[in-house]
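User: My advisor, Dr. K., asked me to get a structural model of this assembly before our group meeting. I'm new to this, so sorry if the format is off. These are the inputs:
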Amino acid sequence: MDLALLAAALTFLYGGRAPASAQRLEVRLDATAAHARPPADVLGAGVATYGLLGTRIDLERFGPAKGDYDLVLSGGRDTREGGSSWVSAALGGEWARWIGSIAARARAEAFGLWFREPFSYRAHGITIAPRASRSLGGLTFSLAGELIRGGWQTEDTLEVAGDLDVTGASLSVGRVVGTGWLEATVEGHEARNGALPGSYTGFGASYGVMAGRFGIRVDGRRWNTPAGGELGYHGTIGWQVNDRLSAHLTVGKSVTDPVHGSPGSFTATLGASWRMISAEVRRVAPVVEFAEMVDGGRKVRFRIYAEDAEQVAITGDFTGWKPRPMQRAGDAWILEIVLQPGLHHFGFVLDGERWFVPDDAPGVVDDGWGRRNASLVVEGA
Amino acid sequence: MTRILVPTALSLAMLATALSPGGIRTAAAQELSRLERVRAELPAEAARSIERTLAEARRLGLPTEPLIDKALEGAAKKVQPARIVEVVQGLAERLRHAQSLLDASATPSDITAVADALQRGVPDEAVRALRTGAPGGASIAASVHTLADLLDRGVPMGAALDAVQEWRGRAKNALELRELPAAVERLIREGVLPEQAAAAVASAVRDGGRPAAAGPPPGVGPGKAPGPEKGVPVAPGKGKGKGKGKGKG
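Assistant: The format is fine. Below is the predicted structure of the whole assembly, which you can bring to the meeting.
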């Protein structure tokens, strides 16, 4: 049933696909050093300093319905003798599209965690996390869900296994305050895990602001777990060093995680992320590109992708609404036209009969007769 | 009785075209040519209705080119003539409304762009704000079109207007204005909510950068909803609660 839910969500969000505007592959290397001090009532944990090294491989499709696929591999090790070590992997996809005035997103992820020392703990599962957001009256409301299904297995003195089962939802409301973003959230989760199953609820708030290449974020949360109430808080400073390198410093106290039941701890984290590879796998140019000014106006290049069409024409006010044939160039159809300054409406005709306006065309507007036009403005000299 | 033919503006235009050396077509002649196409492609009654709408638009000082274009568009899309007339009349009304929001020096280009933006959901007060803030009576066509593009991406009006006003306040060029919607959309695709994205882009412009450079440092920017971090697991039975499971023995 969970797979059916996943399939339905993917179909709903991914339906009506349009040619991708770009596909980009990125490979990142993340390094993090953390010093953690768990609560005193967690036996055997103690103060730990650990390092995490991970790599993230992202394939992003930029288009009207964004798709983003990622593979994250990471490993960590506690620096203490006999301390813990673990490796984890997650393969996920994220989709986003507009449904009317609602921004809809959904993420699906398969994950695995292998905690190796000093005891063996393995967990695996599938996560589905939908989210819908809408702005109303200066506030942005977001409703999110989280569904995790999987299992865990541990070998300490006895091999024990169980279901990993988390169902949760959250409601957030946010708005711009000053030059930053203020958000408040209430959330609840029902969890079955190996360490602390039960209900987790809480409310919290965060504020993030950016100044140039730096960002600051503070957040606080009141959290109720099956073992009692907790308070969590963090302060983070992020630095976009350059286009490829970013760093962050986070200090605070985390709360108990409902997925694995990991206790919260006081933690100071210093991390860096390096974008090793960023390559366009497939670049699709925009529908409209503005070129140089010439006598009579500005050159504008039109480009669409209609691989199945035998002939493509552009039509608009600048053609007197008569179709003007475009030329095929590879997998695209292109035409360059000089447009006078002002507003122009246009669209495309496929195979002489089908009206077509790409979802990523600029200035999409209702033509008054149930179809869409694209539009653009050419500024004066 | 002798008929006296009173030349109309259109017939004068025809005369001007016929007499002008080298056959240079004036704007009026071009309009005439397109109007002839409207008469040729629509039934007589529909063409007459459109000509009455055009006459009223001229009387009010409204641009007529978009009205003729709309009629030709409807004919090209094989829309029913009555529907074409209805939509052309609706456009004339929007042009009149747009003209009322602008001052007497507004160009046909601005009136047309504002009418289009009104149809796309830009409110009157936003048009007035752009008009008021226009340096030296500069055109607002590109600004109002960009504002409508931002609204299309779900950016609330206040945040959208702020982003466009920031661009205008920094006397940026048209290329960077065109970058605003694309920069906002890029951030939205990265998971940032529309209002946050517009604020980030406005902030980038305010800081003297280009809209395309806007973006939060990872893990810090708005849009990252708080949630429990997945920390280091502890052995079941050694945490704050006792684990449950099926013993395999």
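One thing worth pointing out at the meeting: Chain B has two domains: 11-101, 124-215.

User: Perfect, thanks a lot.
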